[in-house]
User: What shape does this take?
Amino acid sequence: MTGIVIIGAGHAGVNVAASLRKQDADLAITILSAEDQIPYHRPPLSKKAVFDEALPIELLQANGYYEKANIDLRLSTPVTSIDTAGQTVTLEDGTQLPYAQLVIATGTTLRAMPAPGGELAQGVYTYADIQYLGPRIQAANKIAVIGGGFIGCEVAAGALKMGKQVSLLITGPRALRKAVAPILGETVTKLHRENGMDVRTGCRVQEITPQGVSTDQGFVEADVVITGIGADANMQLAQDAGLHTQHGILVNEFGHTSAAHVYAVGDVAEFPYGFGDNKTTLRLESIQNATDQGAIVAANIVAERQQQEAKAYTPTPWFWSDQGDLKLQMAGLGSLDAEHKVLPGNTETTLTVVHLQDGEMIAVDTLNVPGNHLAGRKLLEMKKPITWAMIEDCDFDLKKLFKQLR
Amino acid sequence: MTQVTFTQADGSQVSVEANNGEHLMKLALDNGVEGITGACGGSCMCATCHVTVDSVTGELAGPGEMEAEILDMEVDEPQETSRLCCQVFVSSDIDSINVTVQEG
Assistant: This one.
């Protein structure tokens, strides 16, 4: 029986391979990576690595793991097409690789800056990106960052901490507008400003030049311009192969795509989430998703091969973002439409916000309160209804509530 | 240089010399220590690098707030010597350290 082919060597793809190897010592596993680096962790790139002169790289698996685990990792090997009927993938040099099961873990591509001169701005996604950006940031005095999402805020805060003069240009009314509860976004915006960051909200970029960024709020001088304006799923291969896609490659709760024996996992996969009226499909760009969905898909590949029942992926999402000295941690999937209630007992730099939908807790956002994040995560993982009254009854102590319900 | 020894679940040991500033999770991954996953890449967000510290020659700083919370909430039976080894850094204050790999 032919083996498993995994397209993409990010966190999700490598995790599928490693999980498969743990379950089956003999399975033939091939990972095809378009990048030329041994697979590495992406989150540290924008949080710390790009600001460190040494440009440290954190490998997902030790050098030598792939040989030892008998995983055929092929770097600099882009895939040009997938034939789901013939069960083969074609590589750039024309080689055809057969598969019994295929895993698409192609991740995302950063959105390019649409304004004139957009090519002068650099995003942070790959190790090659920080190899380019790192020395330029070191040498720069003034840095402009376009985009107030996690990556933009992380890069801006990290550069500020290095002592650079930093402008953060945001089209919305505050940082992290879509990602966290409004009060947390406002607090983070305020704290970055107090630290000396020039945060410009409601700011439209008109043009990028070698001297800086021209905006509707005037010209922002910059030696380096960095963008963090989101990413789109790498699903062209899947679309060309006739797989169903929307914002990502559509999969069911087991990770199956619309083609037999083909799975999608990680940032590129759009999966069913929620129950009843709140049922939707979504794509998550997170380590939690890459790790947990990867483990489920690996288990379901083994199940398919042994004709056993597949397991459903029903995650409790969580995220984190390190912005200078601010540690943001989000448990559950928050919503701007939810009711947002702040737990009492905050200092200038701490905050815990509970998202309530139809009276029940759906997410907890925290700033510099790791205990509440973890307690929130554990409470949500129980998948029991948690109301504000229950939180109140526990003196707003989420950990106490968790220990009571456990 | 600090001598770091990992005892794996099967009782076998991996012993390595480490430089100042390196954390034990990275050392474990680089040297193929079984049972250390490090899913979050050393960001102190998961509990897949749980060890117990058997002995230290020298001075080792205790766990920080986040690490202590994770050990309390994520680890089923944390022990007094439990640590997340991504938060255990080698320094000139430590001559040697012996740890045992624990279940996440």
User: Anything to note?
Assistant: The interface with chain A takes residues 26, 29-32, 39-43, 45-46, 65-66, 69-70, 73-74 of chain B (CB under 8 Å).
